[in-house]
Write a structure and sequence with these properties.
With 247 residues, this protein is an alpha+beta fold. The protein is built from nine helices and eleven strands. Helix 6 (129-145) crosses helix 8 (198-212) and helix 8 crosses helix 9 (216-240).
Length: 247
C-alpha cells in the first residue's frame, strides 16, 4: 500500500486511513454511488467525506500503477495545492494486489455546505439569487487569479455555505485540474459546464469582466459562445441516443 496523511491529522487519523477499507465497508452513509462512491464517516469526533475510487479493468490498473498518479493521490495533492478553495484534506491511500493498483481512497474533512451552485441555477425564487451569482463570479475570479482551472466546473462540484452576511464557496471532485496562467477564452469557457440560462450567465460574466478589467459585452459574447457550443454538443449526443432534449 501507499498512503499520505496531512501532518495536522497524523496522530489522530493514521489508524483510520490504514484501515479505511474496514471503516468504509461498515459504514452505510453513502451520499453518492456511481463509478466511484462517497460516504460520510465520523471518526474521533470529526466528520469526513471518504471517496472510494474503483479501478475496473486491467489496462487501467497497469496505467495507474506504472504511468500516472492515481485519482486518489491527485485529489490529495491538488487539495493541498488549492488550499482554502476546497475542503481540508486528511489523506489518501492506495491498495495493491499482485503488484497492481486495486482500489484507492481520498479522505477530506466534511464541509457543511447549505447547497450547491445548482440551487440558484434551477430555483429562480431562491432568496438573494442574483447576489449569489455575483459572489460566485468573484470566487471564480479568485480561483483563476491563483492559476486554478477546474476541468469539471459543473453544478454538483461547487459547494456554497450561506453565512449571515456572506457566502463561502468550495470546489470538490478535484482530481482533474490545471494550474497555469489562463487566457481570456479559457477563463470564460470555464463557465460552460454550468449549463446556465443566457441571462444568468450574463449576470455572472458582467461581474467577472469588471474584476478582470475587460469589456463586458466582449466577455459575454465569448462566454455565450462556449456555453451554446457545449449545449449543442451534449444535446446532439442525447438525440443520437434517442434521449428527449429540452432546449
Amino acid at each position: 500500500m501507499k498512503y499520505k496523511i496531512n501532518p495536522i491529522y497524523e496522530k489522530t487519523f493514521k489508524d483510520f486511513l490504514l484501515n479505511i477499507r474496514k471503516y468504509f465497508n461498515q459504514n452505510q452513509n453513502s451520499i453518492h454511488k456511481a463509478r466511484n462512491e462517497l460516504k460520510i464517516i465520523s471518526y474521533n469526533d470529526v466528520e469526513t467525506v471518504v471517496k472510494s475510487f474503483k479501478v475496473p479493468n486491467i489496462i487501467r490498473r497497469l496505467f495507474y500503477t506504472y504511468f500516472r498518479d492515481t485519482k486518489a493521490k491527485k485529489s490529495y495533492d491538488n487539495s493541498v495545492k488549492i488550499g482554502k478553495f476546497t475542503p481540508t484534506p486528511i489523506g489518501y491511500i492506495e491498495f495493491f494486489t499482485q503488484g497492481l493498483l486495486a482500489d484507492s481512497y481520498f479522505v477530506a474533512k466534511k464541509f457543511d455546505y447549505d447547497f450547491t451552485i445548482k440551487e440558484p441555477i434551477v430555483n429562480k425564487d431562491l432568496v438573494d439569487r442574483k447576489n449569489i451569482f455575483r459572489e460566485f463570479a468573484k470566487f471564480t475570479y479568485e480561483l483563476h487569479e491563483h492559476k486554478i482551472y477546474h476541468n469539471d466546473y459543473s453544478p454538483g462540484n461547487i459547494l456554497i455555505k450561506r453565512d449571515e452576511t456572506d457566502y463561502t464557496f468550495k470546489i470538490v471532485d478535484i482530481n482533474r485540474m490545471k494550474f497555469k496562467e489562463l487566457s481570456l477564452d479559457e477563463r470564460l469557457k470555464n463557465f460552460a459546464k454550468l449549463w446556465l440560462l443566457d441571462e444568468d450567465l450574463t449576470t455572472i460574466v458582467k461581474e467577472y469582466a469588471e474584476l478582470i478589467h475587460e469589456d463586458k459585452q466582449k466577455c459575454i459574447n465569448i462566454a455565450l459562445k462556449y456555453s451554446h457550443a457545449l449545449k449543442r454538443k451534449i444535446n446532439m449526443k442525447k438525440r443520437l441516443k434517442g434521449i428527449e432534449v429540452v432546449d
